Amino acid sequence: MALADDIAEKKRALDAARPLPLNIVGRLADWFELETTVACAVVEGDRLSRREVMLLFAKGEPVLRNRPIDDQRMILNHRRALELMARLSFQPGGAVTERTIQAFHSLLFTGIGRMAGRYRDGPLKDVSAGASPDPAKVRVSMSALSGWLRRAEPSPDTAFEAHHRMMAVRPFDDGNATVALLLGNLILNRAGYPPVVVRETDRDAYFDTMQRAWSVGDKTPFRDVMMGLLNQSLDVCLVGAAGSLAGREEEPEPVSRP
Protein backbone atom coordinates (compact mmCIF):
# COMPACT_ATOMS: atom_id res chain seq x y z
CA MET A 1 0.00 0.00 0.00
CA ALA A 2 2.95 2.33 0.65
CA LEU A 3 3.87 2.30 -3.03
CA ALA A 4 0.29 3.00 -4.07
CA ASP A 5 0.19 5.92 -1.64
CA ASP A 6 3.50 7.20 -2.99
CA ILE A 7 2.15 7.04 -6.55
CA ALA A 8 -1.05 8.82 -5.56
CA GLU A 9 0.93 11.61 -3.90
CA LYS A 10 3.19 12.01 -6.95
CA LYS A 11 0.15 12.08 -9.23
CA ARG A 12 -1.33 14.88 -7.12
CA ALA A 13 1.95 16.79 -7.31
CA LEU A 14 2.10 16.35 -11.08
CA ASP A 15 -1.51 17.47 -11.50
CA ALA A 16 -0.77 20.54 -9.37
CA ALA A 17 2.12 21.44 -11.71
CA ARG A 18 -0.07 21.25 -14.81
CA PRO A 19 -0.21 22.76 -17.34
CA LEU A 20 3.51 22.26 -17.84
CA PRO A 21 5.49 24.65 -20.04
CA LEU A 22 5.48 23.53 -23.68
CA ASN A 23 9.25 23.10 -23.78
CA ILE A 24 9.09 20.72 -20.79
CA VAL A 25 6.17 18.83 -22.34
CA GLY A 26 8.21 18.45 -25.52
CA ARG A 27 11.28 17.19 -23.67
CA LEU A 28 9.25 14.66 -21.70
CA ALA A 29 7.42 13.49 -24.83
CA ASP A 30 10.73 13.00 -26.64
CA TRP A 31 12.20 11.13 -23.67
CA PHE A 32 9.25 8.76 -23.32
CA GLU A 33 9.14 8.21 -27.09
CA LEU A 34 12.76 7.07 -27.02
CA GLU A 35 12.55 5.04 -23.83
CA THR A 36 9.32 3.21 -24.65
CA THR A 37 10.77 2.33 -28.05
CA VAL A 38 13.95 1.01 -26.42
CA ALA A 39 11.57 -0.97 -24.18
CA CYS A 40 10.02 -2.46 -27.33
CA ALA A 41 13.44 -3.80 -28.27
CA VAL A 42 13.93 -5.09 -24.71
CA VAL A 43 10.67 -7.07 -24.47
CA GLU A 44 10.97 -8.40 -28.03
CA GLY A 45 14.52 -9.58 -27.36
CA ASP A 46 15.98 -7.50 -30.20
CA ARG A 47 18.68 -6.01 -27.93
CA LEU A 48 19.06 -2.80 -29.91
CA SER A 49 20.84 -0.20 -27.82
CA ARG A 50 19.49 3.24 -27.00
CA ARG A 51 22.12 4.75 -29.29
CA GLU A 52 21.03 2.49 -32.16
CA VAL A 53 17.39 3.42 -31.64
CA MET A 54 18.35 7.10 -31.65
CA LEU A 55 20.22 6.60 -34.93
CA LEU A 56 17.19 4.92 -36.51
CA PHE A 57 15.00 7.80 -35.34
CA ALA A 58 17.42 10.28 -36.88
CA LYS A 59 17.68 8.48 -40.23
CA GLY A 60 14.06 7.33 -40.48
CA GLU A 61 15.03 4.11 -42.26
CA PRO A 62 16.96 0.89 -41.54
CA VAL A 63 20.66 1.80 -41.61
CA LEU A 64 22.28 -0.61 -39.15
CA ARG A 65 24.32 -3.17 -41.06
CA ASN A 66 24.74 -5.51 -38.11
CA ARG A 67 21.05 -5.67 -37.14
CA PRO A 68 18.20 -7.56 -38.86
CA ILE A 69 16.10 -5.37 -41.15
CA ASP A 70 12.83 -6.46 -39.53
CA ASP A 71 14.10 -5.51 -36.06
CA GLN A 72 14.90 -2.04 -37.37
CA ARG A 73 11.54 -1.76 -39.11
CA MET A 74 9.78 -2.62 -35.86
CA ILE A 75 11.60 0.21 -34.09
CA LEU A 76 10.52 2.69 -36.76
CA ASN A 77 7.00 1.26 -36.78
CA HIS A 78 6.81 1.57 -33.01
CA ARG A 79 7.18 5.30 -33.40
CA ARG A 80 4.06 5.30 -35.59
CA ALA A 81 2.21 3.20 -33.03
CA LEU A 82 3.13 5.79 -30.38
CA GLU A 83 1.64 8.50 -32.60
CA LEU A 84 -1.63 6.54 -32.65
CA MET A 85 -1.45 6.11 -28.88
CA ALA A 86 -0.97 9.87 -28.45
CA ARG A 87 -4.01 10.63 -30.63
CA LEU A 88 -6.20 8.14 -28.78
CA SER A 89 -5.01 9.47 -25.42
CA PHE A 90 -6.78 12.75 -26.17
CA GLN A 91 -10.02 11.06 -27.23
CA PRO A 92 -11.40 9.98 -23.84
CA GLY A 93 -14.87 9.57 -25.35
CA GLY A 94 -13.74 6.85 -27.74
CA ALA A 95 -13.73 3.27 -26.47
CA VAL A 96 -10.57 1.20 -26.33
CA THR A 97 -11.42 -2.15 -27.91
CA GLU A 98 -9.83 -5.11 -29.68
CA ARG A 99 -9.80 -2.95 -32.82
CA THR A 100 -7.42 -0.65 -30.97
CA ILE A 101 -5.22 -3.64 -30.16
CA GLN A 102 -5.27 -4.82 -33.78
CA ALA A 103 -4.47 -1.30 -34.99
CA PHE A 104 -1.39 -1.20 -32.76
CA HIS A 105 -0.21 -4.55 -34.09
CA SER A 106 -0.93 -3.59 -37.69
CA LEU A 107 1.22 -0.46 -37.37
CA LEU A 108 3.95 -2.31 -35.51
CA PHE A 109 4.28 -5.02 -38.16
CA THR A 110 3.72 -2.99 -41.32
CA GLY A 111 6.19 -4.33 -43.87
CA ILE A 112 7.05 -7.29 -41.60
CA GLY A 113 5.35 -10.47 -42.73
CA ARG A 114 1.71 -11.04 -43.64
CA MET A 115 0.14 -11.18 -40.17
CA ALA A 116 0.15 -7.47 -39.29
CA GLY A 117 -3.03 -6.82 -37.29
CA ARG A 118 -4.23 -10.43 -37.71
CA TYR A 119 -4.77 -12.95 -34.94
CA ARG A 120 -2.72 -16.11 -35.05
CA ASP A 121 -4.30 -19.31 -36.34
CA GLY A 122 -1.76 -21.68 -34.84
CA PRO A 123 0.43 -22.15 -31.75
CA LEU A 124 2.87 -19.46 -30.72
CA LYS A 125 6.30 -19.64 -32.28
CA ASP A 126 8.00 -19.00 -28.94
CA VAL A 127 6.41 -20.79 -26.00
CA SER A 128 9.41 -20.42 -23.69
CA ALA A 129 7.39 -18.06 -21.49
CA GLY A 130 4.57 -20.53 -20.98
CA ALA A 131 2.14 -22.85 -22.71
CA SER A 132 0.64 -21.63 -25.97
CA PRO A 133 -3.03 -20.62 -25.49
CA ASP A 134 -5.48 -22.42 -27.80
CA PRO A 135 -5.68 -20.49 -31.11
CA ALA A 136 -9.31 -21.59 -31.52
CA LYS A 137 -10.21 -19.52 -28.47
CA VAL A 138 -8.33 -16.37 -29.45
CA ARG A 139 -11.26 -14.53 -31.05
CA VAL A 140 -13.66 -15.37 -28.24
CA SER A 141 -11.11 -14.32 -25.62
CA MET A 142 -10.31 -11.05 -27.41
CA SER A 143 -14.01 -10.28 -27.79
CA ALA A 144 -14.40 -10.78 -24.03
CA LEU A 145 -11.41 -8.49 -23.42
CA SER A 146 -12.95 -5.89 -25.72
CA GLY A 147 -16.21 -5.95 -23.78
CA TRP A 148 -14.36 -5.58 -20.48
CA LEU A 149 -12.32 -2.65 -21.84
CA ARG A 150 -15.51 -0.84 -22.87
CA ARG A 151 -16.80 -1.01 -19.30
CA ALA A 152 -13.57 -0.34 -17.38
CA GLU A 153 -12.61 3.13 -16.19
CA PRO A 154 -9.04 4.29 -17.00
CA SER A 155 -6.72 3.76 -14.03
CA PRO A 156 -3.38 2.06 -13.29
CA ASP A 157 -5.20 -1.08 -12.13
CA THR A 158 -7.21 -1.16 -15.38
CA ALA A 159 -4.04 -0.64 -17.42
CA PHE A 160 -2.17 -3.49 -15.76
CA GLU A 161 -5.18 -5.80 -15.79
CA ALA A 162 -5.67 -5.12 -19.52
CA HIS A 163 -1.99 -5.93 -20.08
CA HIS A 164 -2.35 -9.17 -18.12
CA ARG A 165 -5.53 -10.23 -19.91
CA MET A 166 -4.07 -9.65 -23.35
CA MET A 167 -0.87 -11.51 -22.51
CA ALA A 168 -2.89 -14.42 -21.13
CA VAL A 169 -4.31 -14.81 -24.66
CA ARG A 170 -1.25 -13.70 -26.67
CA PRO A 171 -3.37 -13.31 -29.80
CA PHE A 172 -0.58 -12.58 -32.29
CA ASP A 173 2.29 -14.66 -33.63
CA ASP A 174 4.78 -11.98 -32.56
CA GLY A 175 4.84 -8.67 -30.75
CA ASN A 176 2.34 -9.48 -27.99
CA ALA A 177 4.34 -7.87 -25.18
CA THR A 178 4.90 -4.65 -27.12
CA VAL A 179 1.21 -4.39 -28.02
CA ALA A 180 0.23 -5.11 -24.40
CA LEU A 181 2.51 -2.29 -23.26
CA LEU A 182 1.00 0.07 -25.85
CA LEU A 183 -2.48 -0.89 -24.64
CA GLY A 184 -1.62 -0.42 -20.98
CA ASN A 185 0.18 2.87 -21.62
CA LEU A 186 -2.78 4.20 -23.59
CA ILE A 187 -5.03 3.51 -20.61
CA LEU A 188 -2.51 5.13 -18.26
CA ASN A 189 -2.35 8.22 -20.48
CA ARG A 190 -6.13 8.49 -20.49
CA ALA A 191 -6.08 8.38 -16.71
CA GLY A 192 -3.53 11.22 -16.61
CA TYR A 193 -0.46 9.07 -15.87
CA PRO A 194 2.79 8.77 -17.85
CA PRO A 195 3.64 5.52 -19.66
CA VAL A 196 5.69 2.80 -18.03
CA VAL A 197 9.12 1.89 -19.37
CA VAL A 198 10.55 -1.65 -19.19
CA ARG A 199 14.33 -1.43 -19.02
CA GLU A 200 16.81 -4.23 -19.63
CA THR A 201 17.24 -4.58 -15.86
CA ASP A 202 13.46 -5.00 -15.48
CA ARG A 203 13.04 -7.62 -18.20
CA ASP A 204 13.37 -10.79 -16.11
CA ALA A 205 11.06 -9.55 -13.34
CA TYR A 206 8.56 -8.35 -15.94
CA PHE A 207 8.34 -11.70 -17.73
CA ASP A 208 8.66 -13.89 -14.62
CA THR A 209 5.80 -12.17 -12.78
CA MET A 210 3.68 -12.00 -15.92
CA GLN A 211 4.07 -15.75 -16.44
CA ARG A 212 3.15 -16.35 -12.79
CA ALA A 213 0.02 -14.23 -13.29
CA TRP A 214 -1.32 -16.32 -16.16
CA SER A 215 -0.01 -19.72 -15.06
CA VAL A 216 -1.07 -19.81 -11.39
CA GLY A 217 -3.37 -16.79 -11.20
CA ASP A 218 -1.21 -14.76 -8.80
CA LYS A 219 -1.28 -11.26 -10.29
CA THR A 220 0.09 -9.40 -7.27
CA PRO A 221 3.81 -9.68 -8.14
CA PHE A 222 3.14 -8.48 -11.71
CA ARG A 223 1.09 -5.55 -10.44
CA ASP A 224 3.88 -4.68 -8.00
CA VAL A 225 6.45 -4.65 -10.82
CA MET A 226 4.26 -2.45 -13.01
CA MET A 227 3.46 -0.09 -10.14
CA GLY A 228 7.18 0.23 -9.52
CA LEU A 229 7.74 1.16 -13.17
CA LEU A 230 4.92 3.69 -12.98
CA ASN A 231 6.50 5.17 -9.87
CA GLN A 232 9.74 5.67 -11.81
CA SER A 233 7.91 7.35 -14.69
CA LEU A 234 6.21 9.74 -12.28
CA ASP A 235 9.64 10.59 -10.87
CA VAL A 236 10.84 11.48 -14.36
CA CYS A 237 7.81 13.72 -14.91
CA LEU A 238 8.26 15.48 -11.57
CA VAL A 239 11.91 16.12 -12.37
CA GLY A 240 10.75 17.56 -15.68
CA ALA A 241 8.08 19.63 -13.99
CA ALA A 242 10.77 21.16 -11.79
CA GLY A 243 12.65 22.21 -14.92
CA SER A 244 15.54 19.87 -14.22
CA LEU A 245 15.56 18.40 -17.73
CA ALA A 246 16.79 21.64 -19.30
CA GLY A 247 20.02 21.11 -21.17
CA ARG A 248 20.33 17.43 -20.22
CA GLU A 249 20.87 14.81 -22.89
CA GLU A 250 21.01 11.71 -20.76
CA GLU A 251 18.15 9.82 -19.12
CA PRO A 252 16.62 11.72 -16.20
CA GLU A 253 17.49 9.70 -13.10
CA PRO A 254 14.40 8.67 -11.09
CA VAL A 255 14.24 10.00 -7.54
CA SER A 256 13.57 6.53 -6.20
CA ARG A 257 13.43 2.99 -7.47
CA PRO A 258 11.11 0.21 -6.38
From TrEMBL:
InterPro entries: Fido (IPR003812), Fido-like_dom_sf (IPR036597), Fido_containing (IPR040198). Pfam families: Fic. Residues 96-228 form the Fido domain. It comes from the Bacteria. Gene3D superfamilies: Fido-like domain (1.10.3290.10). This is Fic family protein. It comes from Azospirillum oleiclasticum.
